[in-house]
């Protein structure tokens, strides 16, 4: 991602003497390329690789020509969490929108399918053993969405589904002492929920204040706000427009591969969601082999000044993309 996000990862990956990221294949589930004839059941790997850019740390590059409108790859989130305002209207696992419920059901957690219910066990079995009233209240009253992702990750770690350092691969934002103090209340409430539920000490050992803030520092600049385009959009342009006009976010999610895309105010790649939190990366125009693929982290319709301000304050870098350099 941005210049100042990549220092430690850069050195870490360089030490591995690898230009391609080892997690690339793991977190990428499909590509548009038709499977080759020898192995029709296995999709070809997506036409991209992760490498280092001249000035912005790691980035994603095309390994062959990609045509405008092509689906480059899809990506499943490491974890996703519904917004508190939509929590009873979307699947608690994949964030798919659900038909309006009867009043009697409206206060309960819902899943869109048996499959999602089954998959959610990695966090839900642990989550349901604790009382989240105080923690959820804290998020609701302060309008916080990211601590909910930390809670979900903590439950996944406790169930043994993922390791506590799973997000270390993502670059963190730098935190001021004030920001760390602000996070204290959330940490205390999370820890308290687990302690009161009498989990074994060794299971909650990872849950230190340092872990909580380090995870939050990564989630803050790597989480994607999920807005479902909805319906079926074959036409790329209509999908791009639809995502701008989409209703309020259904939730937030964290991915590995999509986080490796650098930003551009005039991007050649678009990240979008159709029916759930599975991300789709699509080419907005023809991309040549070797060209870097970039997405726009913010609303492309904003003015130069607004874009520079948000990218600097929210993501910690000054944008020097071609569009910004041209003063547009
Ligand atoms: Zn679902
Ligand atoms: Zn720019």
From TrEMBL:
The organism's taxonomy opens as:
Eukaryota, Viridiplantae, Streptophyta, Embryophyta, Tracheophyta
Q: Which Gene3D superfamilies match?
A: 1.10.220.160, 6.10.140.2220, SET domain
Q: Which Pfam families match?
A: SET
Q: Which organism is it from?
A: Rubroshorea leprosula
Return the GO cellular component terms, semicolon-separated: nucleus
Return the protein name.
SET domain-containing protein
Q: Can you give the residue ranges of the SET domain?
A: 46-298
Q: Which residues form the signal peptide?
A: none
């Amino acid at each position: 991602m941005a210049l100042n996000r990549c220092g430690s990862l850069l050195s870490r990956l360089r030490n591995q003497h690898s230009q391609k990221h080892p997690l690339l294949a793991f977190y990428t589930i499909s590509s548009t390329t038709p499977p080759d004839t020898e192995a029709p059941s296995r999709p070809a790997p997506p036409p991209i690789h992760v490498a280092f850019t001249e000035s912005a740390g790691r980035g994603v590059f095309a390994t062959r020509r990609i045509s405008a409108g092509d689906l480059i790859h899809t990506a499943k989130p490491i974890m996703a969490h519904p917004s508190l305002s939509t929590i009873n209207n979307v699947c608690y696992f994949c964030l798919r929108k659900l038909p309006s419920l009867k009043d009697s059901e409206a206060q309960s957690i819902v899943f869109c399918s048996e499959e999602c219910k089954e998959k959610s066990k990695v966090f839900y079995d642990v989550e349901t053993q604790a009382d989240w009233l105080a923690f959820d209240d804290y998020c609701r009253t302060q309008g916080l969405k990211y601590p909910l992702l930390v809670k979900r990750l903590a439950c996944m770690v406790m169930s043994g589904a993922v390791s506590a350092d799973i997000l270390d691969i993502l670059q963190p934002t730098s935190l001021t002492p004030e920001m760390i103090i602000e996070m204290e209340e959330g940490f205390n409430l999370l820890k308290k929920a687990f302690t009161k539920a009498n989990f074994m000490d060794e299971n909650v050992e990872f849950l230190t204040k340092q872990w909580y803030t380090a995870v939050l520092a990564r989630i803050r600049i790597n989480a994607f706000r999920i807005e479902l385009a909805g319906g079926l959009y074959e036409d790329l342009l209509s999908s791009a427009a639809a995502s701008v006009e989409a209703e309020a976010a259904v939730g937030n999610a964290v991915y590995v591969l999509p986080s490796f895309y650098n930003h551009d105010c005039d991007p050649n790649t678009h990240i979008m969601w159709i029916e759930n939190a599975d991300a789709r990366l699509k080419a907005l125009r023809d991309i040549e082999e070797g060209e870097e693929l970039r997405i726009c982290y913010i609303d492309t319709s904003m003015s130069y000044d607004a874009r520079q301000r948000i990218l600097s304050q929210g993501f910690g870098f000054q944008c020097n993309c071609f569009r910004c350099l041209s003063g547009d």
